[in-house]
Design goal:
Elements (H helix, E strand, L loop, with lengths): L1 E3 L2 E8 H6 L9 E5 L8 E6 L2 E6 L8 E6 L2 E7 L11 E5 L4 E2 L5 E6 L8 H4 E4 L17 E2 L5 E5 L2 H4 L4 H6 L8 E6 L15 E7 L13 E3 L9 E4 L6 H7 E5 L7 E6 L4 E6 L6 E8 L29 E8 L7
Parallel strand pairs: 9-15
Antiparallel strand pairs: 1-2, 2-5, 3-6, 4-5, 6-7, 8-10, 10-13, 11-14, 12-13, 14-15, 16-17, 17-20, 18-21, 19-20, 21-22
Organism: Segetibacter aerophilus
InterPro entries: Cu-Rt/internalin_Ig-like (IPR014755), SbsA_Ig (IPR032812)
Protein name: SbsA Ig-like domain-containing protein
């Protein structure tokens, strides 16, 4: 078995075994299939250190037995072992992390400890009402699902057709969430990761539904706690409301007077209501710009340019600014007499 990043990626077959079975040393006439199956797996053959390496197009699955076949005769088997149950995956976080969410909440993020199996989230994730009954037709059934490249963060959209009030699904079914009611997001522990291990335990998050959020975030209303020069203390930016956690990681930059970016680390804190920007090097005295991409959203999907659910009967001025900016000044620390 050939392993890479804790995954079985190929099968190594000794060349002398192939020759004994009547196959050439280059692996011609060789097939690999799931035990008791009839279809040969597709893959590539290579040679290394006296072995023919079979690398399948589809990854080998933990717990399955595979047969090595030459001239329709099984010459060997190999089983991919199950992962250690002690290393079972868990739900690390759910965002938004606040216990009170807007009635027109648009997205929920699930963050796992290991890469999970894709395409089956709606089999394992449910929204329960105050009576522990499953609320139907809440989430969009997106295929492919919206995972990060590491397959550890899943974005689940509540049905926008039920959130936008001028659309038929909203008029027929109403909003997915109802103001003043409590809900439970439930993740079942039969969801497996890419290694075949089920979640170590089920996960639940209770939250209360508040009023609709119909206003776009406005950077000019944000509060800045500005550090002194000659320190690398954090610049604290408070939004006055929770914003989208993962967009916050991607949409905010600090620019110096010479237009050079300030290298630093962003930490999202206070239930996504503020960030701490800590520079790599000490702050220099001078003027800076806080630059924010307009795609940044609040929990209802309102971005900096426009609300997600706007009244189509009311004419508004269309804004398509790519970025928003605010200036601030880093000053020398005050010297005491």
């Amino acid at each position: 078995m050939v392993w890479s990043n804790d995954k079985a990626v190929a099968i190594a077959i000794p060349e002398d075994l192939l020759e004994t079975a009547g196959a050439s040393a280059d692996g011609k006439m060789l097939q690999v299939r799931v035990a008791k199956g009839e279809e040969a797996m597709l893959g590539d053959l290579s040679s290394k250190n006296g072995h023919v390496i079979f690398t399948p197009l589809v990854s080998l699955t933990r717990g399955l037995l595979y047969e090595v076949v030459v001239n329709n005769k099984v010459i060997g088997t190999v089983k991919v072992p199950l992962a250690d149950a002690a290393d079972a995956p868990v739900v690390l976080n759910v965002y938004p992390s606040s216990d009170t969410l807007p009635e027109n909440l648009l997205k929920i993020y699930l963050r796992f400890s290991t890469p999970m199996r894709e395409g089956e989230s709606l089999q394992h994730v449910a929204l329960l009402d105050q009576n522990s009954d499953t609320v139907k037709n809440v989430f969009l059934d997106l295929q492919p699902e919206l995972w990060n490249k590491e397959r550890t963060v899943l974005t689940m959209w509540l049905d926008p057709g039920r959130i936008k009030r001028d659309l038929i699904p909203n008029q027929k079914l109403g909003n997915p969430l109802q103001k003043g009611k409590q809900y439970t997001l439930a993740v079942a522990n039969n969801w497996k990761d890419n290694r075949g291990l089920s979640l170590k335990e089920p996960f639940t998050k209770k939250f209360l539904v508040g009023t609709r959020d119909e206003l776009s975030p406005d950077p000019k209303d944000w509060q800045l706690k500005i550090p002194s020069a000659k320190t690398n203390a954090a610049l604290v930016i408070s939004f006055g409301e929770p914003l989208d956690k993962f967009l916050l990681d991607e949409t905010i930059r600090i620019i110096q007077e010479d237009n050079a970016g300030v290298a630093g680390r962003i930490e999202v804190t206070n239930q996504e209501r503020e960030i701490l920007f800590t520079p790599v090097d000490n702050w220099k005295p001078g003027k800076y710009r806080l630059v924010v991409q307009s795609i940044l959203e609040d929990l209802a999907g309102n971005n900096l340019n426009r609300p997600f659910d706007r009244d189509t009967k009311v004419k508004t001025v269309k804004t398509d600014k790519p970025i928003y900016e605010r200036t601030f000044e880093i000053k020398q620390p005050v010297s005491l007499p």
